[in-house]
Amino acid sequence: MMEDQQTADEVEQAFCEAVLRYGTEWSPAVPEHPKISVNGKPYTIRSVCVLALGDRHKLPDKIVAYLFQNMRVEHDWLREKLGQEPSYTIGAECLIRLMDARKAAHRKIKTTGIV
Q: Is the pTM of this model over 0.90?
């Protein structure tokens, strides 16, 4: 049980790091970077999100605020869900949606040249 709790704590810390590094380091052009360490192994931000799915612990307020600030109008339903249940699971869903939206915008720019 102690090992499971240590793993859960490390995933939670890694998720918070992932959210912050998403804003400063992640690019849809190179989605496999940056890497975040979980139990000594490197994970992509998306992989850290997958690890956080199922964790119903409450997110730190600064992480909730960051996610709220960065979600778009088309994600209002998810913002509402995050407001009702600010858990790692919902936070991971939000971050995955943010990455998907940035990847779609990047693809559009690459294919059409329209910003």
A: no
